[in-house]
Amino acid sequence: MSPDRFTLDHINPRSLGGSNDLDNLALACHRCNQRHYNFTDGVDSETQSLANLFHPRQMDWTEHFIWTSDGIRIFGTTAIGRATYQRLDLNDDFHNNGAIQQARWIWVSSGWHPPDADPQQ
Question: Is 117 part of any domain?
Answer without folding.
Answer: no
